[in-house]
């Protein structure tokens, strides 16, 4: 049986070495570079170590074939096979082949979590018996395998018995696992109860304040996400409308080109009277001027308490459910101006959009309500709940009365926690602002299903229109009030005897049955049926002309047009006088300039910015390389001196110098140098572009008005711009190859390297001299000529400097650090002069002194190496004059040259064009953002021109409307 069991899990001998080898290779370290077995790429350019690593990964040969474990996929496949085989061995046959220890341990772990597993003790004997049984079987097999031939029938019978045993064991194991999952474990249940009780205690321990704070935080996050989603939706909607318009224009141009005819002039469509009037109101919306030309044109202002039925009345007049609604939630957050006019099709359209919504289709109605909600939420900014921004839409349809209505947010009595602190006052102020127009028709909505004393709107209306010359009172939800209210009380309301306010007319309407899905047709039929069968109507409480939304709309439209005809001439005269005043002021202040609005000024500034971007392509290659060379050395010089040159030069020997330089340069080129080079290239591009902009500002025809806009656009484009990622990899290869060259090619390059070395050392020496001057105070000459004196601290430093100068004088090749004996000697010498200093103080003073000493020695070597080129070519590193410094700076110079050349090609071929594209994108975004234009184009010239253009346009629209109105008479 053991032989049979062994055959079931036999492992191919070629794979027995895999598991220990894979484990051993999972953590291999070559010279400080660790490979974890999960990445076979050449990290950090360690190609040499990777080569050794790949060689080590080659496995032994079996039968003439060589297996490689360096392939990750092959190793993972072998790992999966081994995992499955080993798992099967441990679960089923571990005790029979490998001993019962492992199986017994696994059994003990399972027993703790399984209910009543005593039956397994009958199946598995103890470990000692299993081991003895296994050894006996193996001994018996070895002793009889050559002498006893087993009958094939018995062998087949043994295999059948083994299969039966395996099936039986698998079944019992599945039953045990299922029992463990389904039955309750008392210990587990006890633990669950304990955790549940602890959670309950912790929850109780939380204060109400903490809970409320967490809820507020979550709610604010949800609101922020909703606002962001709606802003994105609105942005996409505008983009879609813009693309649709461009598509129509392109299609029209295509048809013109296809027919090879001249473009026909667009036929001027005659606008309706109400549309012309609505355009005038749109122009007047938010108009404000120092000339006190107020907007006194009539419009119907719909006011009322929250949830009193304002929006439902407006929808009934418009014959479409066009507004979003919520259960008790404030939905109207901004004024909505609705222009009603008669037309063949029932459609709606926003003022700033060309899309038409078919109000006979439920899908278009749903989209219209969603877009209204998006616009409302988008108009609310800065944590506010309501906004003064007007949302304008036009509704056309058969049988609609011509008028302009403004739906305002409902007046509230109490603010909720999710509202801004000034919401109540903001709504009140907004309502008073619209009702204060002496020609505004106030449509006062009162909820008939609640007590009249709870109304807030009637007091506001009576204050704005105490005589009731322009107020129309509307009692809503009369169907709900019929059974609740006293008929005499309703009679008093509709006769104007209950409220102190006065009105031109009183109406009772029914605007729904409380069902959101009811159509306007259904609501209208329900309203007519209610008033036909109502006890209030039959008993004479209401007159026939005082009921139904239809009679209300006729009365409102009639009063609206009467007030329009009475006031339009006065409004036109007022704007005519304002226009004259503004034109006179413009001529006196800007006599030689044409008045240009912000849009026109923005387009002019846009053209100038794009012209400067084009000038980038006119910059010569030589200038680019000079600029890039300077910027690269500015970015790299500090690293070259502090991290490469000084540590290597202070090592003490030429061989150590070259070794340290090679190591540090290679590490630098593999890690920081490419990124720093790209950074230098990007700064050079910015510098040159800003230089072109500054040059343009100095031209005679430059206009300072555009400077803020140009700077903002360029700064935003530069902030967005990023160098191409592949440029770093390309630079790394070029720089590594360049640094491998250690031989100066000719005398000209040698002289350039010497000059480069001298200049760099002189710059560092000058900076060190400034540090020393600040540390030790003025010299004797400076004291006498410039009347300067030293501080006590500087005098103390001078004492230390005197002792340190003695050390350098006695040993000109002193190491960079002071020994302990030298520090002790300096301190004792200073103590003789009554100067007490610490060891760190001496070291701090030593650093600039030794640095200046070393830089002077380097400068002397540079002078010696000027004419040592031929000696260097003949003797190499054994040259009598040590010129390794010059060779180092020649290598740095070559790297800078090839990097500047590569960056110059990238700038000219790629980056300048990408920057041009990003500037165009920023300009396109700003062109659609009126707030940006208002923020960046400022000054009296702009504001006066904007106001003059607007007043002129309004006055022309008023005259056009008056002519059409007179023709209609």
Task: Please characterize this protein's 3D structure.
Strand 3 (58-62) and strand 4 form a beta hairpin. This protein is elongated. The strands form 3 sheets. The chain has a 9-stranded mixed β-sheet with strand order 8-7-9-6-10-5-11-12-13, with helices on both faces. A two-stranded antiparallel ribbon has the order 1-2. 26% of the residues are buried. The protein is built from 35 helices and 13 strands. The termini are far apart. It is an alpha/beta fold and 969 residues long.
Question: What attributes does this structure have?
Answer:
969 residues; alpha/beta; 9-stranded mixed sheet; two-stranded antiparallel sheet; 35 helices; 13 strands; 64% helix; elongated; disordered N terminus
Note the topology.
Blueprint: H1 2-8, H2 18-25, E1 28-30, E2 33-35, H3 47-56, E3 58-62, E4 65-68, H4 72-98, H5 100-113, H6 119-123, H7 127-144, H8 152-182, H9 186-205, H10 208-259, H11 273-284, E5 300-304, H12 310-318, E6 336-342, E7 347-350, E8 357-358, H13 362-379, E9 391-397, E10 403-407, H14 423-435, E11 441-447, H15 457-464, E12 471-476, H16 478-481, H17 487-495, E13 505-508, H18 520-533, H19 535-538, H20 549-589, H21 598-616, H22 621-649, H23 654-670, H24 672-697, H25 707-720, H26 726-739, H27 747-776, H28 780-786, H29 792-810, H30 820-832, H31 839-864, H32 869-875, H33 884-927, H34 930-936, H35 940-968
Parallel strand pairs: 5-10, 5-11, 6-9, 11-12, 12-13
Antiparallel strand pairs: 1-2, 3-4, 6-10, 7-8, 7-9
Helix pairs in contact: 4-5, 10-13, 11-35, 20-35, 21-24, 21-33, 22-23, 22-24, 22-33, 23-26, 24-26, 24-33, 25-33, 26-33, 27-31, 27-33, 29-30, 29-31
């Amino acid at each position: 049986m053991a032989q049979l069991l062994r055959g079931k899990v036999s492992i191919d001998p070629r794979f027995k070495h895999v598991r220990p080898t894979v484990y051993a290779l999972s953590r291999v370290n070559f010279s400080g570079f660790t490979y974890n077995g999960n990445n076979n790429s050449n990290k950090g350019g360690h190609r040499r170590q990777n080569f050794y690593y790949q060689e080590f990964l080659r496995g032994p040969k079996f039968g003439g074939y060589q297996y490689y474990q360096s392939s990750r996929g092959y190793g993972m496949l072998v790992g999966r096979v081994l995992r499955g085989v080993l798992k099967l061995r441990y679960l089923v046959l571990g005790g029979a082949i490998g001993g019962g220890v492992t199986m017994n341990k696994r059994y003990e772990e399972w027993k703790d979590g399984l209910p009543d597993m005593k039956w397994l003790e009958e199946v598995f004997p103890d470990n000692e018996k299993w081991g003895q049984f296994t050894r006996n079987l193996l001994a018996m097999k070895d002793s009889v395998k050559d002498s006893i031939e087993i009958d094939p029938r018995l062998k087949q019978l043994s295999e059948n018995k083994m299969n039966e045993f395996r099936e039986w064991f698998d079944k019992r194991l599945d039953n045990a696992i299922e029992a463990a999952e389904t039955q309750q474990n008392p210990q587990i249940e006890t633990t669950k109860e304990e955790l549940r009780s602890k959670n309950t205690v912790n929850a109780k321990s939380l204060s109400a304040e903490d809970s409320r704070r967490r809820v507020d935080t979550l709610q604010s996050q949800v609101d922020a996400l909703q606002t962001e989603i709606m802003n994105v939706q609105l942005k996409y909607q505008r983009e879609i409308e813009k693309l649709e318009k461009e598509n129509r224009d392109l299609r029209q141009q295509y048809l013109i080109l296809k027919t090879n005819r001249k473009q026909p002039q667009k036929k001027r469509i005659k606008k309706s009277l109400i549309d012309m009037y609505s355009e005038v109101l749109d122009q007047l919306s938010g108009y404000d001027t120092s000339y006190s030309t107020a907007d006194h044109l009539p419009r119907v202002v719909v006011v009322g308490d929250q949830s009193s039925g304002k929006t439902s009345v407006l929808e009934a007049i418009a014959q479409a459910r066009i507004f979003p609604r919520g259960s008790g939630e404030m939905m109207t957050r901004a004024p909505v101006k609705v222009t009603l006019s008669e037309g063949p099709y029932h459609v709606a359209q926003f003022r700033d959009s060309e899309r038409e919504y078919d109000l006979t289709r439920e899908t278009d109605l749903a989209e219209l309500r969603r877009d209204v909600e998006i616009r409302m939420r988008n108009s609310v900014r800065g944590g506010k709940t309501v906004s003064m921004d007007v949302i304008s839409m036009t509704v056309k349809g058969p049988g609609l009365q011509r008028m302009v209505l403004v739906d305002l947010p409902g007046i509230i009595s109490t603010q909720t926690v999710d509202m801004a602190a000034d919401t109540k006052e903001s709504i009140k102020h907004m309502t008073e602002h619209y009702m204060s127009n002496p020609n505004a028709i106030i449509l006062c909505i009162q909820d008939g299903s609640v007590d009249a004393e709870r109304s807030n709107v009637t007091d506001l209306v009576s204050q704005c229109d105490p005589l009731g010359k322009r107020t129309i009172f509307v009692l809503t939800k009369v169907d709900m009030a019929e059974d609740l209210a006293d008929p005499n009380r309703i009679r008093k309301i509709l006769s104007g005897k209950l409220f102190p306010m006065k009105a031109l007319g009183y109406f009772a309407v029914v605007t729904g049955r409380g069902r959101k899905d009811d159509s306007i047709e259904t609501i209208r039929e329900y309203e007519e049926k209610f008033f036909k069968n109502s006890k209030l109507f039959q008993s004479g409480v209401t007159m026939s002309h005082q009921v139904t939304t239809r009679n209300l709309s006729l009365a409102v439209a009639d009063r609206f047009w009467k007030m329009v005809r009475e006031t339009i001439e006065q409004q036109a005269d007022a704007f005519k006088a304002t226009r004259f005043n503004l034109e006179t002021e413009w001529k006196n202040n800007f006599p030689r300039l044409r008045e240009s609005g912000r849009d026109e000024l923005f387009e002019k500034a846009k053209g100038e910015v794009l012209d400067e971007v084009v000038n980038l392509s006119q910059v010569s290659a030589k200038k680019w390389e000079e600029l890039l060379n300077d910027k690269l050395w500015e970015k790299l010089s500090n690293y070259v001196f502090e991290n490469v040159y000084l540590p290597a030069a202070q090592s003490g020997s030429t061989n150590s110098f070259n070794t340290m330089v090679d190591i540090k340069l290679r590490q630098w080129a593999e890690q920081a140098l490419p990124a720093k080079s790209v950074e230098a290239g990007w700064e050079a591009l910015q510098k040159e572009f800003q230089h072109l902009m500054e040059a343009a500002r100095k031209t005679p025809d430059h206009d300072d008005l555009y400077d803020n806009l140009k700077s903002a656009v360029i700064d935003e484009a530069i902030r967005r711009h990023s160098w191409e990622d592949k440029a770093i990899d390309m630079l790394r290869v070029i720089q590594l190859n360049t640094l491998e060259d250690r031989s100066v090619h000719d005398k000209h390059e040698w002289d350039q390297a010497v000059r480069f070395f001298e200049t760099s050392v002189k710059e560092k020496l000058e900076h060190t001299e400034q540090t020393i001057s600040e540390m030790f105070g003025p010299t004797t000459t400076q004291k006498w000529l410039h009347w300067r004196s030293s501080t006590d601290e500087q005098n103390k430093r001078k004492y230390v400097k005197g002792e340190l100068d003695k050390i350098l004088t006695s040993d000109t090749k002193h190491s960079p650090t002071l020994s302990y004996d030298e520090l002790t000697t300096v301190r004792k010498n200073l103590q003789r002069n009554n100067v007490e200093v610490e060891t760190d103080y001496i070291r701090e003073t030593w650093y600039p002194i030794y640095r200046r000493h070393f830089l002077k020695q380097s400068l002397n070597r540079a002078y010696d190496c000027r004419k040592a080129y031929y000696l260097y070519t003949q003797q190499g590193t054994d040259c009598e004059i040590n010129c390794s410094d010059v060779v180092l700076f020649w290598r740095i110079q070559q790297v800078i040259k090839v990097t500047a050349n590569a960056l110059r090609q990238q700038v000219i071929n790629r980056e300048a064009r990408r920057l041009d594209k990003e500037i165009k994108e920023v300009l396109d975004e700003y062109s659609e953002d009126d707030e940006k234009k208002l923020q960046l184009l400022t000054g009296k010239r702009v504001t006066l021109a904007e106001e003059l253009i607007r007043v002129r346009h309004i006055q022309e629209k008023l005259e056009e409307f008056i002519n059409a109105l007179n023709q209609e008479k």
